[in-house]
Design a protein that fits this description.
mainly beta; 9 strands; 10% helix
């Protein structure tokens, strides 16, 4: 009996580390606004040309700060931007947005998070001509209380990505043609 009790106490001491993990949850409603300008689309025609979209509304943030005896403190950040609305600046057309993300971040006093999301005209098959935009969030945490204390955000266009030129295959040389005189 004494041997069993000793084993039980030893097991409880070993498992106590997992029980020490703590979580603190905080939520914020962040008003955001901005204009998303579409990137040029090679297949655009006058009928499918995209327009700048004015986006505004509230983003709901939920930050669950977690400590663990083994790992450094972290944050599970949930971003819910489905309350955002978009309006075309040229046509006044209504746009739908799909903006949700769950991110794992280190717990720091400040953090900047950028989330890309899709927006498209609120018409049948509008999602087939979706464009991207970016939600930028600036977050401040109280690292002692492990709580999100301040948040603000804005909407912007996704930066264009430069396309690298196609390299010349190894063993060949680039050819140029000159006109004969």
């Amino acid at each position: 009996m004494k041997n069993t009790l000793t084993k039980l106490l030893f097991a409880m001491v070993l498992c106590a580390g997992a029980a020490r993990a703590q979580t603190a949850v905080s939520s914020f409603t962040v008003p955001v606004s901005g204009t998303a300008n579409p990137l040029p689309v090679a297949t655009s025609t006058a009928a499918t040309a995209q327009e700048p979209v004015a986006v505004s509304g509230n983003v709901i943030l939920t930050a669950a700060a977690v400590t663990d005896p083994v790992l450094p403190p972290g944050v599970a950040l949930t971003v819910d931007g489905n309350r955002l609305k978009g309006v075309g600046t040229k046509t006044g057309a209504a746009y739908r947005l799909e903006c949700e993300a769950v991110l794992t971040r280190p717990l720091n006093a400040t953090d900047t998070v950028q989330v890309t999301f899709a927006l498209f005209k609120d018409v049948p098959n509008g999602h087939l001509a979706a464009q991207s935009a970016m939600l930028s969030l600036n977050l401040t945490y109280d690292t002692v209380k492990m709580a999100l204390t301040q948040a603000n955000g804005s909407i912007a266009s996704v930066p264009a990505v430069a396309v690298a030129p196609t390299p010349t295959p190894i063993g060949t040389t680039a050819s140029t043609t000159t006109a004969a005189k």
